[in-house]
Amino acid sequence: MSKDIPMTQSEQADAAADTAPDAKHPRIDPQTVIGWGVDADPENDPTYPMRDRSKDDGPGMNWTPPVAQVADVEILQSVEYLRRPATVGQSTPPSGLSGKIRRAAFAYSESQWGHWLLLMLADRVNFVEGIVDDLGKGTLPNPVAEMGLVKSSNARVAGVATLAVAGLAVFGLVTLLRGRDR
Q1: CB of 102 within 8 A of CB of 125?
Q2: Under a CB-based contact definition with an 8 Å cutoff, are residues 135 and 141 in contact?
Q3: Which end of the chain has fewer CB atoms < 10 Å from its terminal CB, N or C?
Q4: pTM as predicted
């Protein structure tokens, strides 16, 4: 092997195994190592219950599953499971456009990109729906504080700064559009 290319760990282990024992690396007697060959006797295999289940009489599960929670709202369920888990979250049932996107996402398997991309899209749509909902209730949204980007003690300052930036953006947009009309 060339000196320029370093050996991998596997190659180093092979090289060490090929070298003759010396004073620095004496050959050992495996019988003196505690645990050496512990799985050599097939009649005394410590992994028997996990490795050979063919002779087990039981179904492999000897417990009664807990009673499933009765959901008061729509619960979206993966197509990969036959039943829901015992407990489910009910705080934010699917609703609006984001809910329709989530329902479409759960038509796909979790192993498909479409499932996860639609769920991410639904999250972004839900964010916009939340802002529109806040404005509909007469509340100015404060996304900087609501996303946890600033401490709660600085939430008012962040809200004013967000409002100022939004105002400047609207002013700039109006000025830009008026300039194009001339």
Answers
A1: no
A2: yes
A3: C
A4: 0.53
